[in-house]
Amino acid sequence: MRSTTTWGTYVRFEVLGPLSVADYRQDQRKSLLPSASKKRVLLAALLSRVGEVVSTQSLITEIWADQPPRKARGALHVYMAQLRNQLVTDVLPERRAQIVTEPPGYLLRLGGAEFDQHDFDILVKEARNNFDTGNLPTAFKAVSGALDLWRGPALAGLTDGELLSVYATCLDEEYVAALELRIELDLLLGNHRAIISELTRLIHDYPLRETFYRHLMLAYYRSERQADALNCFLQLRERLRNDLGVEPCRPVQRLHQAVLSADPALDHQFARSEFMARVPS
């Protein structure tokens, strides 16, 4: 995996934000992104199943939904030929990405090209492995690096079709899961005061994501703001009751009781020691 700030000679695909594909060489970047929206959708669809065949029918549906033109297959073939040509650069052949025709459709082989989703997955896996072994600073660095790859909502502007809508939703879920891990690491590392404003924004952006409320309650409590922690719980409970007719999950309810009783187990140093005691030796 290469840092995006390291210049060399390679092609890089990016889906963690608006679709991007570029040829990097020395200190220059040449965009290879198709200008036509239909070709962008096709490229994104191939990236959503990179290394796997995407059927011709799926691609037609993604572009035209339930109103394909009479010669949709012919038009699709032309678009694919144009995409192939656009991806051909003077990068060494073994480092090129390649669109391959393979029944019942097409597939994209990355070859030596880079892909930001793969980089993200590698960094998150590294973070979780280090978290599980108690190497918290290294885990924090890895998951922060993974989150830094994001440039906005996945495939922004290209998710009208079902295939790309599902793909973008899955990517966004992976982003939120990585964010939850990073915030949990912040709490274990004693950064509770620094993340209060971020968590306040997150519960606004994800009003039914109970993990963020739990993190905010704990950050408030460790920052000597017990009343704010309790109000955070009340806010969540009211929202869940009004929107879904349910109560907060058991972990959040247990945290609420612990905050009410000022349980010493909530203190940062105690929680850090308990976590490290559970790490396999």
Automatic annotation (TrEMBL):
Which positions fall inside the OmpR/PhoB-type domain? 2-110
- One GO molecular-function annotation for this sequence? DNA binding
Q: Which residues bind DNA?
A: 2-110
Please provide the record's keywords in A-Z order.
DNA-binding, Transcription, Transcription regulation, Two-component regulatory system
One Pfam family hit = Trans_reg_C
GO BP, sorted A to Z: phosphorelay signal transduction system
Question: Which InterPro entries does the protein's record reference?
Answer: AfsR-DnrI-RedD_regulator, BTAD, OmpR/PhoB-type_DNA-bd, Sig_transdc_resp-reg_C-effctor, TPR-like_helical_dom_sf, WH-like_DNA-bd_sf
Superkingdom of the organism of origin: Bacteria
Q: Which family does it belong to?
A: Belongs to the AfsR/DnrI/RedD regulatory family.
For this entry, the protein name equals: OmpR/PhoB-type domain-containing protein
